[in-house]
Amino acid sequence: MAQRGRPRTFDRDLALTSAMHLFWEHGFDATSLSQLKAAMGKGISAPSFYAAFESKEALYKEAVELYLKSYGGVTQSLHDGSLPPREGVYLALHRSVEMQYGAGHPKGCMVALGVMGANSPGSETITALLQGVRQRTRAGFRSCVERGIKSGELRKTTNAVAMAAAFDGFFLGISVLARDRVRHSDVQKAVSELMGIWDAAAARPAEAA
């Protein structure tokens, strides 16, 4: 009787990174189990896949966590109270453009693009996960604006919600610009133009006193 060979093994971390790139490029709904297995290499069978990741949904959630710990860290300046609030906003936008246009991974933001790729029945938990991440980023923009108002850098009449929405709307739109191959230099210039919203709301010396 022929002896069975040892089961093929695979690098789980590498497999997770491959899955993250696939989900990032195509979205949750459009990424099939066959694509995931192919990207992970020939060494993984369906039983091995489910033993390692439990389900496609669980794998996606883990891929999002990996994204947030790595590429998604570009927005951390929004939550850094040691930075001047204007700088926190500028760095988040500037670094996001650099990351989303970078090489070695899909263009755009996995979280921003994910909302368009998780619309099928049963993907509600995925949608909720992505909404939670986007809400945290939006809250970060608002926090920076509110700190600017409190410190006297911005006029007291500044609408923090509206200004945060303007920054967040541009942030989410970077993904489309990157996918449409709008020139990187033009989008970085757009960040500088957008910061004019902040500068236009700057408090005058008498107002800041």
UniProtKB/TrEMBL annotation:
Gene3D superfamilies, per database record: Homeodomain-like, Tetracycline Repressor, domain 2
Keyword DNA-binding: yes
DNA-binding region residue numbers: 34-53
Keywords: DNA-binding, Transcription, Transcription regulation
Cited InterPro entries: Homeodomain-like_sf (IPR009057), HTH_TetR (IPR001647), Tet_transcr_reg_TetR-rel_C_sf (IPR036271)
GO molecular function: DNA binding
Superkingdom of origin organism: Bacteria
One Pfam family per UniProt: TetR_N
Domain HTH tetR-type: 9-71
UniProt cross-references to PANTHER family, sorted A to Z: HTH-TYPE TRANSCRIPTIONAL REGULATOR YJDC, TRANSCRIPTIONAL REGULATORY PROTEIN
Name the UniProt record assigns to this protein: TetR family transcriptional regulator
Species the sequence originates in: Variovorax paradoxus
